[in-house]
Amino acid sequence: MSTRTPLALHPLPTTLAAVALVAAGTLTVNAAPAQAAACNGYVGLTFDDGPSGNTPALLSALTQNGLRATMFNQGQYTAANPSQVRAQVNAGMWVGNHSYTHPHLPQLGQAQIDSEISRTQQAIAAAGGGTPKLFRPPYGETNSTVKAVEDKYGLTEIIWDVDSQDWNGASTDAIVQAAGRLGNGQIILMHDWSANSRAAIPRIAQGLTARGLCAGRISPQTGRAVAP
What we know:
six-stranded parallel β-sheet, globular
């Protein structure tokens, strides 16, 4: 017969106790409790042109650093990678519409614009991403016809306040610096496929925390970043 004293009679140090509870599956750990407690403002992190084979690594980097973002997905890539849309949602991200084939919308007629937007709405909903409320026109190009179609589908047009320039070969350092210019309510443009933007995520998270800012959702009412 064992003479060992039951573990419960020996108080564990707090950290060891937490580890034991996590191992037992009885304790849920918040990835960023300090961040959540000190949000003096919110910014919108956005990633265009997904989903893709790069999406899992991007989602991993975001979740590991306690960040949430809005993914402006193309319809053609959504249809090809529906499981990645579900992964975006499961990771706590929000999904927006970024057209079906990424054309220069102001150069198209209203019927073509309607097709670009409506097919993407359908593809995202079919993939489990919900019905988007936000639309980012490719290249940030818009006009009255584009806006009329957005209105038809109940979409709020979202451009950006800060361009990370990741699409233009910006370095990781430059992307971190760009994120450092974000103020409360503002939105930064990044891309799903950019390795440099992905590499910048830990430092973006640190910079936001140092300034009392948190990653928020983009309000369909105001088009600004707000509390999740």
